[in-house]
Every structure is written in structure tokens, then in C-alpha cells.
Amino acid sequence: MLSFVAVALIVLSGVVLSTIWAIKYYLETSSMTTSIENFLEEQSGEDGGLLPLKDITSEERAEFENLDYKATQAQMDKISKAISEGANGFLFAEYVYMAKFMVGFSIILLVFLGFGSSWTKAIFTTIAFLVGSISSIVSGWIGMKIAVLANVRTAVAAFRSPGESLKEPFIAAFKAGGVMGFSLVALGLLSLYVLIVIYHIFFPAALADDIEMTKLMYECVAGFGLGGSSIALFGRVGGGIYTKAADVGADLFKLEGLEEDDPRNPAVIADNVGDNVGDIAGMGADLFGSFAESSCAAMVVSASSPDLHNNWGVMCFPLLIASGGIMVCIITSMFATECFSPTNPSSVASSLKNQLIVSTVLMTPVAYVLTVFTFPAEFTVSNIEGVQDWYIFIAIAVGLWAGLGIGIITEYYTSNANAPTQELALNSDTAATNIIFGLALGYKSTILPVIFLAITIYVSFALAGMYGVACGALGILSTLAIGLTIDAYGPICDNAGGIAEMCSFPSIVRSKKTDPLDAAGNTTAAIGKGFAIGSAAMVSLALFGAFVTVKNPDNIPVVDVLDPLVFAGVLVGSMLPYWFSAMTMKSVAIAAGDMVKEVKRQFDTLDLMNGGEPQYEKCVKISTEASLREMVPPGALVMLTPLFVGYVLGVRALAGLLTGILCSGVQMAISASNSGGAWDNAKKWVEDEQLTHHYATMYKEDKVEFNKLYTKWPLPPVKPGQPQPEEVKEEDRVINLAVGFGKHTRQHNAVVTGDTVGDPLKDTSGPAINILVKLSAIISLVFASSMPNWDEHGYLGQALGY
What we know:
The protein is an all-alpha fold. Helices cover 78% and strands 1% of the residues. It contains 26 helices and two strands. The protein has helices at residues 4-30, 39-42, 58-65, 69-116, 119-160, 167-202, 211-252, 268-302, 312-315, 317-338, 348-374, 389-414, 419-426, 431-444, 447-477, 480-502, 507-551, 564-606, 616-630, 632-649, 651-687, 690-701, 703-710, 733-740, 746-783, 795-799, and strands at 378-381, 384-388. α8 runs parallel beside α25, α20 packs parallel to α25 and α22 packs antiparallel against α24 (733-740). 59% of the residues are buried.
């Protein structure tokens, strides 16, 4: 049994080490140069040769030598400043909305819990809610600040790295992601621990012999998770609408012949801003909420145990796991920068995937040691007697390895190095077939992740009931710092590629460096989303168990599906992810429509194709206003539905609602995220001329099969715009393929269309569903004590005499 001092040492050691590591990475990132102006002079060798350019072709070398470095430097400074100002401006406007929400929802908490339960609970829950909200806001802000600092440094590192080396830009983006990962976990761990210690002063009988006081204290602490997840909702939905309004608006003009991130396109700055506010700040707030909610769920359930409620070490066990995970992630991150840094484009994704594998392997024994030294040899929890300490370790380990499995499966389905995404690209002769194959890929990709989650839930529940499920969620999130690091890496590389294109860097910088890094980033972003929805499923079920434990008069977490109220709730809950997705996707379409009109206006009036100056700020304003306007209805749906059902129809109907949301939402979120990720990487596969390479290889290795396939479409012209030749020699076909399947062709237009459809799926609706799943459950838990009793109808039923 760990003492108060031992727990404090472990937790605070994790906080200090994580903070030091985040500061280290920040200093190393900020010290990287943002200058290319004197590049040629700095890199001259003794023989007069240019060392970084020795491994490239003479044509590529000429691009470096003929570049106007002064003008390029000025353009890069201007663009990076515009991205930073746009991101800061949006977050400030969004945080004003959030501040108003925090005040309004605090009043709701005080009134409902004060009159329905007790004013003590109302006050302390509201304080915890505000602490969680502020911590989540700070987490998102830190992530955004380091992202806009690192994007230009990653682009410059790609420019300056020798030959086709990816090590320098990879490390730049990885370390910047590490700042977000380690600082967020440190902040969450410290704020939750300090909150618990302070609350113990006001609840002195808790964690002693008064089990009811312990339960009350930790039900108040659960407000921390509610605050974190509430902010994540607006960060994810608002940021997602922002980024996809800009991205879709910009992508649609690629169909008119513009390149990706063409500086003449007025929407490109808003697009790059969106990567930071949606995929960085939004994801940071999302996973902060998962950490807070999983910790609160475990503590609320263990507070009901007669054997654990007075054990300080056990009641702080989620924090001990998080602290141990920090130490594991620090060691793992050293492997990325020293051992697994990529040497070629094909090794980027594996370098990042190895981070998940190493952290999982190292975390397993750490979890065992913490479990054995924290729990009594045998105890009762969740009304299950005879639970052994090693049962808890198994529950954590199953969750930990299930998270790894979900990550690997997600990588398989979304990486363009693997068969599913390549098959998608190969079946993109038309936009219709591209979309059909992409949807099928997303649906199929749900199979194994759901099986992994089902196994985790079954094993953990069989061993330790709902407390075991909560520990399974802790296992998935135990290596959160690394998960956040590789997730933040992707948008940073995306921004770096955009800067390289908008500044007209030599073509090798974009095609051989930032594009491969970005393609891997799309995959890691999909892994991060799979990781988030997997943890959300476990967290939601754990919170559901805590909710039922609080409301069931016998403290027996049993929900009868044959109860008509419960079953009706299941049906309605299963519908909510569809309603929520419809609202968010429609919001993206509305905002993107506004963006397209503005971009078209500028092309029509400013002569952008012939040197006119784009008005980037107008597109940034459109995305900002549209996202803030459109994020309110989906947010209201998520926040108000559980309250309406719980108070008006009763908690049994609410239990069914939560079950339906969980079961439906998991499938939708995984499918949407993976379809979108695969569509994006299929587009990059085509743009990298891999489709051309595929058919050229087929021509060389199997001419019979090639000719069979080739009859599916007319022979492409030798060059775009030229008429179809009457006769083409067989040996010219491979050359023609390079023209027929590259950029700005029918196949390319098809994959761009698929990517545009997938954008709101993978970056708005899909990721936001996991917050719907979690937030519905935490709201139900926090308000549970003021709702009607388990065996009673809601206020509507009572009014009707039932």
C-alpha cells in the first residue's frame, strides 16, 4: 500500500520529467534556423562544390542555384506570419465563445446539482468543471503555438537537408509534436492531482472510514473530466469545420488545374491555419478530455469499493499509471530521434509506428510493477469479490495492447504503402468508383478494431467488473504522450509542405521530402484518431459503469435491454451519431460553399493568375466566422440530449441512450476517419506518380495482363491537351502512361474528388463523434445524483401518473 508521500513522489516526478522534456524539445525546436538566405554560401565545400546538393540531378541542382533566395525568404516569412496570426485570431475568437459557455454551463451545474442533490456537491463540481475547462484550453493553445513555430522550421530543415535526406525535417516535426504531447500530459496530471489534494482538505472524512464521503468527493472531482471534454467538443467541432471549410474550398480549385497549396489560391492560408486549430488544438483538447475522463471514471468506481475507498494509492492509481507512462514515453522518444529516424520515404511511417510498439512493450512491465505495489493482494470492487491484484494488470495490459492493435490496423488501411489504399487508387478511373471503394475500405476497417475492443471489454469486465473496464481505458491512454507526439507530427509536416509549395522551393524539397513526411503524417493522424476513438469507447463504457453505480439503488450495474424505456433509449442513442454527423458535415458544406464563392470572386476580379495579390485574410475570416457560427447546434445537441432524456424520461432511458451512442458511434467514427485518410493518401500516391510506376511495372513484367487492363480506357494523349494519336507504338505506351495517370488527369481528378469528400469525414465528423460518445457519458455521471431514481420514471412520466 503506497503512502501519501510515495504517491506524491511518483506523480510529481512524472510531472517534472514531462515538463523538462517538453521544455527541452521546445528549446531545440525554437533554436532551429528559419533562414535560407545564405544557404549557398554556407554549404560550399573546400572544392567549391555544394555539399547538400551532391546526391541530386543536375536539373534539381540548377533549381537551387537559380533560386532568388532573398525573395523566397521574404515570402516564407510573410506566409508563416499569416498562418500564425490566423491561428491566434481564430483561437482567441473561439475561446471567447468558450468563456461564455463556461459561465453559462457553470450556472446550470450549480442550479441542477444544488436543488437536485446538494449545494456542497454543486459548488465543488462546478469548481472542478472550471479547472478542467481551463486546463483543456491551455493544452490546445500550447499545441497550436508550437505547431506554428515548427512548421516553417520543418520546411527549412527539408530545404537544407542533404540530398534526399529526411532525418532533419523528421526530427524537427517530431520534437515539436513532443512539446505538445509531454506538456499536455504534465498539465493534466498536475492539475488533477492538485485538485484531488485540495478537495481532500475540504472532505477530511474521505479516504478514511466514511465511504459515502469518499464517493461524494470523487463525484465532485468528475467535474474535471466534464470540463475537459466540453472544451474538446468545441475545439474539435469548431476547429474541424474551420479546417475543412478552407481545405475543401482550396481543393476544389485543384480541379481547375492549380497545384496543391498554390500561392495564387486565396484559401491556402486558411487551409494551413486549419491544420493547426483543428488537428493540433482540437486533438490536444480531445485527448486531454479522454485522460481526464478515464481517470475520473476509475476513481468514481473504486470509491464505491469497501476495500479500496480508503487506500490513497489505489484512489490515485490512474495518476500513477500516467506518471509511469511519461517515463516510458521519454525513453521511447529517444529511440525516434536516435535509432528510428527515417533514411528514405518508405521508412517514415515505420519510424513512427515503431514508437507505438516500443512504448507498448516498455509500458507493460511498468504497469505490472505499479499494480502489484499499489493494490492489496485480494479485494472487492464493482461488487466482484476475490479480485486479485494481477487481475488489474491484465485489464491494463489488454487495453494497452488493444490500443497498439488498433493503431497498426489503422496504419494498414490508410497508408499508401499498403494494399487497401493502393487498391483504392487503382480503382479511381472515375470519381464514383473512387468513392465507392473508399467507403468500402472504411467499413471494412472497423472489423478488427471493434473485435480488439470487444476482447478488451470482455476480459477486463470478467476480471474486475466496471473497474476493470476503466483500467482497460487507462491502459490505452497510458502512453498518451507518444500518441499525441506522432499525431501532432502530421499537421506540422502538412504545413511545412504548404510553405514549401507557396514559397516555390525547389521541386525536390516538396516531392522527395515534405510530401513523404506529410503522407506518413496522414497515416499517423489516422492512427491518432483510431487511438482516440478506441480510448473513447473504453472511457465511455467506464463512465457508463460509474453512472449506473451511482444511480442503481443496489449498486449493481445491470441494465435490462428488454425494459421498453431502455430499448427505446438504445434506438435513439444509435441514431444520434448520424444526426450529429449530418449537422457537422452540412456545416462544412455551408462553410466551404462560402469559401468557394470568395475564392471565385478573387479569381474573377483580382487577376490572380497573372500576378494579382490574393486576399488571404478574407478567406481566414470566412472560415473563422463560419466555424464559430456552425459549431453551436452540434454542441447543443451533445450537451442537452442526455440532460433532457435523464430528467424527462428517466435514467433507465438515459442508460439505453448511452449504450446506443457507444455502439453506433464507434463504428461510424472508425469508418469515417479511415475512409478519409485512405482517400487523402490515395491522392498523394497518384500525385507521386506511383500509379504510373504501377502500370509501367505491369507492362514490363506481364504484358498480357497489362493489355487486358489497358483496354478499359482509351489510350491517353502523349501530352495534355493534344489530340488522341491514331497509332501509338507499343513501346510508347509506358511514356504515355506518365502523362495519362499523373496530375491533372481524369484519374487525378477522381482521387482529388474522393479526398474532398473524405476531408469532413476524417477531420470533422469522425473525430468529433468520439467526443459525442465520451461527453454524453460524463454529463450523465456528473448530473446523475440530481436525476430521478433508477426505479422511477422521469418527470414527464411522473406528471402523467406512471
